[in-house]
Amino acid sequence: MPLMTGSGRRAATLVLAVGLGLTACGGDDGGTETPTATDSTSSSAADTGSSAPASPGSSAPAETEAVTVTAVDFDFELSEDSYSAGTYTFEVTNTGTMPHDFIVERDGADVAGTQVLEPGASETIEVTLEEGDYSFYCGVGQHRANGMETAVTVTA
Question: Keyword Repressor, does the record have it (predicted)?
Fold first, then answer.
């Protein structure tokens, strides 16, 4: 094996340092996220695995209810039309021809949401809904103003 000269060692050290620096700086594919009530589960966020108590005085965790959300152009198709307070997993798929997201809003504040989903993309978020009024809407461009919003009342 040939010995490296001083300049060869410096070049090898520089290549190694740049590679390590890029590795340390990279790795986050998620971009910016909309704040969520609980962590979302997707390729860009981790699952906390937490759940709410089943009922007062009970130590068993409540079931998380799955809701399928299909984003089509200027509309959401939801597998549920009534909601009781509890934890829900929203499985959002964009079947439209343009980008969409899915935002959960309460009292004018966003409490959970997906990333912007390109056509064909999916993301799952977990949200704990408390009793009250919510809006599920698309925050992309003028989609909400064009009717891509659903009002929901969560009961006790």
Answer: no
Q: Would you give the distance in Å from CA 139 to the centre of its chain?
A: 14
The CA distance from 8 to 12, in Å, is 6
Tell me: the pLDDT tens digits for 105-121? 999 999 999 999 999 99
CB 38 within 8 A of CB 127: yes
Q: Residue 29: helix, strand or coil by DSSP?
A: coil
Nearest to 87 by CA among 111, 62, 58: 62
CA distance 109 to 139: 13
Which domains are assigned to the chain?
65-155 (2.60.40.420)
Cβ contact 140:101 at 8 Å: yes
Instruction: Kindly report the pTM of this predicted structure.
Output: 0.63
For residue 64, list its beta bridge partners. Answer: none
